[in-house]
Amino acid sequence: MTYRVAIVEDNATARATLRSHLLQIEPFSVSSFSQGSELQSALRVQNFEIIIFDYYLGETKTGVEWLTTLRESRFIRPGTGIIFITSDRLPQTIGQIIDCQPDLLLIKPYNLQTLSRGIKQYLAYRQVAHSALQAMDEQQPAEALRLLKASLSQDIPLRIRTDIIKLKARLLFESGEIRQARELYEAVLLDSDRVLWAQWGKIKCLYMEGRWEHCQSDLTGLIETELAKNKAFEWLAGLSFEQQAYEKAEYYLDHIAF
Predict the structure, then answer these.
(1) 257 pLDDT above the threshold of 70
(2) Where are the alpha helices (DSSP H) in the chain?
């Protein structure tokens, strides 16, 4: 199968270099766009298996904001692979990217070897998860979950297993199976309590279950995490506002670094 890849990068030189690198790794069918609006127009008539976003796009929306917009309007299929590239190492930026759960994050400057390793790892995962991703695109979440469970029963590399678990937890959450999703996130955190996507996943589940005290406790722990503290303060402010604890909400809002 030849994967269709979209590059969204406002810098023409960087766009051309990335395209050249990708074609050295795999015989991809590559389309390039300088703005998110161009990608949106293209998605009206075709789909891509992989979309690569630069964070800064030189327009009113960042790559994260465009991804959110395109997902909410269903221009991007659930099984589409998302890769982010950025030169910004600020915790606020990295935190925003991690929060939208990309399949791969690359920090500029990167070289062909780094890009190749990341892309090949993603393609190996996609090969294992292919049938489940296809079921997701066909709006069959129950079938996708069944296929993911079958994949996890196989002898697969640890890195791919982790990615499959991450996808399964996300799908459980989106299907309304909140308790099962939380238990999966908690199982990941038993092995390592520093897995950020699992921490956020657990917090979202606790919130949906109405377990606000546990949610607040976990969020307080994330305040010390550089990549997550801004989002943690946002959530804490929101929880305080819902509980009509307005002074607390103001306190948390004052600590967000804009």
Answers:
(1) no
(2) 12-25, 36-43, 63-72, 91-99, 112-137, 141-152, 158-174, 178-191, 196-208, 212-222, 229-242, 246-254
